Every structure is written in C-alpha cells, then in structure tokens.
Description:
By secondary structure, this protein is α/β, with parallel strands linked by helices.
Amino acid sequence: MNAAADSIAPLIARLTQPGAPFELSEVNVSGRMMRAYKNAPATLPDLINAARAHGAKEFIAYQGERWSYDRFFAAADALAGRLQAEVGVRPGDRVAIAMRNRPEWAVALVAAVLVGALPAPLNSFGTGPELRAVIEFLEPKVLFCDGERLQRLEPDLAALGCHIVVAGAPADEARGLLGFDAVSASGGPARQPVALQPDDPALLLFTSGASARPKAVQSSHRAVCQAIFNIDFIGALSGMTSPKAVATLMARALAPATLTVVPLFHVSGLHAQLLTTLRNGRRLVFMHRWDPAQALRMIQDEKITQFNGAPSMVQQLMGTPSFDPAGSARTLGGVGFGGAGLSQRLVEAVLGLFPDSMSGIGFGLTETNGAVSAISGHLFETKPHSSGPLSPLAEVRIVGPGGQAMPVGERGEIWVRGVTVMQRYWGQPEATTQALQDGWFRTGDVGYLDADGFLFVVDRIKDVINRSGEKIAAAEVESCLSELPDVDEAAVIAMPDAVTGEAVVAVVVPKPGAKLTSEQVQAHVAARLASYKVPSRVVIRDDRLPRNPAGKALKGELKTQYSA
Length: 564
C-alpha cells in the first residue's frame, strides 16, 4: 500500500467525525439512507443568501467591470422581483440561460434560484437549430441570452413562446425583447421569498449522451448543496496532505482568485467555480472567449491563484511563449484539470513546472453533480493518473459484463450511488430508467479501484467523444453525415489528440460513382452542428464499413486501422 495513500483514511475520519467541519449524518432520499454532510446548506437559496455577508468584497471581474457582492445581489434581487411580479415566474418554472460567461449569466441563475424556478443553462456553443430544439423541449418561462445567441435564434423569436431578456444588446420592445440592465435595475417590485425543501428540484443541466438528443439532468437542492460542500472537503483534505504547497501559498499572501475559462453551463464551471466562489467569498475573473496568450496576461494582471480548465487549455497555456511559473504565472498555486484524461506528457509537464503545488484532477459527471473522486497536491504527485480517493458521499461499484461486482484492480463499469446523484432526466423517463438501477447511476465509464481505494478511469462504454471537455454524441454527427446525398455509410470515432484529448474522426463511404471530399463533409457538418462537433479529420473509404453480425459498425477495428 502506498504510504501517502495509507495516511488518507485517518485524515478523512478526522474531518468527518462528530463535531468536525465535515461531520457525516444519514438522510433519507427516496426511501434510502445515504451519507450526507451535516453542516451543508439545505437548499440553494440558503447557500446563496449566506454569501451576502461578503458585502463590498469584489466578486466578479469582466472586461474592465468590477462587481462587488453587494452589486451582484442588488441586481439579482431586483431581477428576481421582476421575474415574480411582472413575468409571473413561479416555483418549478424553467428559466433558460444561453450566454457566454459574463456577470449577467450568474445574476440570471441566482435570480431564478431565489424565486424557486429551475434554471436551465444551455450549451452556448450550439447552433441556432440546436438551441431552438432545446428551448422547445424545455418550454421555459424566460430565456436569458446575449446578442450572439439572439442572432442565432433569429428570425422567428415569437415561436419560442417565452419572455426573452438580452444582455449586452439593445432592448426591442416591438419584438418583446427586454434589456437585462433594465430588468435588473433597482426600484422595481420587491422579491418575495419562497419556501423550498431539500428534495425539491433545483437545477437542470444538459449533458450529451450516446444519442443525438441532449438530456436535461434534474438535481435536487440537497444534491447540489452537498456536492458544493464536498468541494470544500476536497480542499481541506488536499491541504492536510500537502503542507509544503499550503506554506508556499500562504507565503504569497494573495487573495484567492480564479480565472474562469470553463463554460458555466458545465458542472465544473457552475459548481466548482461559480457557486463555490460565491459561497466562500472569493473572486472570479471571467474570460469571454478562450485565448491562451490573453489568459496568461489576465493571470498576471489579476494575480490569479487558481486556473482550472480542460487538459487542452492547460497544455495551450503552458505552451504560450511567455509562460513562466516563476515569472508570468508566479501567482498560480497550481492548475486543475477536468473533462478529459491526462496524457503522460502533460502530467510530467505540470509536475515539472508546478512542484509542491495544489494541481490536481477529479472525476464526476453532470448526473452526479461531480463529487465522486478528486486528487490534488501531494497526492496528485503520488498517483497522477488516478482520479483520487472516493468522496465520503459516494458509493462506487465496479461492475463486470454479467452484472457482478469486480474485485480490487479489475476493470468494469463504474456505478455511483449517493446523495449527489440526479433525480431524473427531465422529460425522458425511459432514459432515466436505463441510467438508474436501484439508485445506482451507470456512468458508462470503465475503471477500477486499487488497493488504496483510489479510483482509476481508463475507458468509456458510451459512444461519446470528449473533445476539450465538450462531450459529443457520435450518433448525432453520424446522423448529420447521413443527410449528405453522396454518403452511403458513415461512422464517427474518437482518436487520441495531443491538444484536445480526443479528436472527432469521420469515416465516410461514398455512394457508388459519387465524388466526395473531406472539405465537403466538414462544411456540411459545420452548417448544421456546433463547431466543436465538426470532424477534425475525414477518412474517405472505398470499402464497406466493417460490421458485426447484428450490423453494428466495428469502431474498434476502425480506430486500429486509422490510428497511424
């Protein structure tokens, strides 16, 4: 047993014992007793309202603007009052948010939470038809968007059937477009408090699955609050196991500040950055659009202490010519990864550039609100390819092909059960039934637990491609390719990529006599799907796709054939 890992168990016991900050209790969730943090907020409004105590401290910096906690809550309260009194938003109503990262995004989310609505952040990279399809599925009472998303949804805005509030663009009363500044200005009707319970629905987050249709993950207030409280637990455990890193950070005497480049519609952006920062009175610096050189300048200018991003972002940041951990990036206490596996080269680079830091990675899904496992600091140096020890809240089962529990060190599908697991896929009962079995969520990821109880994630069962942290359903891209008149067969596979983690590769068989180019294929997809779903490589194949007796494409064989 690893010596460092062996020391974890007593530390976890100390942090979670009666009277400790992360004391564990048991709660009844749908007839099952589950472990939960006794001191976690009961509902999201409880968590959010506690942050009002941070007052005049700076909360968000964005393109030259500075938002204090006071300013933020003044706007959120004003917006919440108007949502109730003038728009008629009631508990349980959906409120969609389609914007790039900006302060108004956070204000809209908090206002929706405070009135008991279900905020539903949408993937801002989506095309107009993709966004429209999700909005029609949700039937929201209100849509918050920015000017770029508004352009994509034109021209028939009335067909969306909801109130539209636009940030960063002029209002247009003739078309029913409300300006964000106006509806969040003080002087309107006062917000009326609503009574919420821990098991009430709190949030809808969309996730890409193995099919083309996105799924809306519905989570309770308890699940979200427990997951966010668990992030504090991870920080406490990392600090206790990494005294040198903590001493280095304290010597710098810098106020915690996070450069937020991960989209807020991701569970990692929303939970681990926005809501955690809000809860703890720290500072966020929003980046509107990813650019590694600009990110480095912002790290310098804003004295950023934490950078979390997809592995591709971390790699690009460290590849910037002026990047220097002792100079331009000297304020960083480490980097965090999410969304994709780590290459050996990247691990070695991070450990070399940031020794004795709080760098790390975690494993969790939208359906589990994160909160499955995490590793950082000294433990990350010890087991850099692990996802870390399990959260005290999570039960993990490694399941073999016959449904049997696999022994230590043996691979199988990772199943997760616990207080942070979703309630259901909103509006998709069949998908819910397939994903949840006796309270266990089937992740679709393959992994194993080692003798120290550390989780390793090694493969994926679901036909999903992870490109720079964005999940892409292969079936969706294949369906799009099938619409090309000259395409006879198509398969979409994931291939390793040094920058993005995984690349989208399309293998296309033209119809007899048809002339088809890679450029034509890419242009067809680009016109219909979000840019990150466009194949970075297209293989034009003369032979039929290899298939099994049931007619399913043998993608493993294709990956082997085109890996060169």
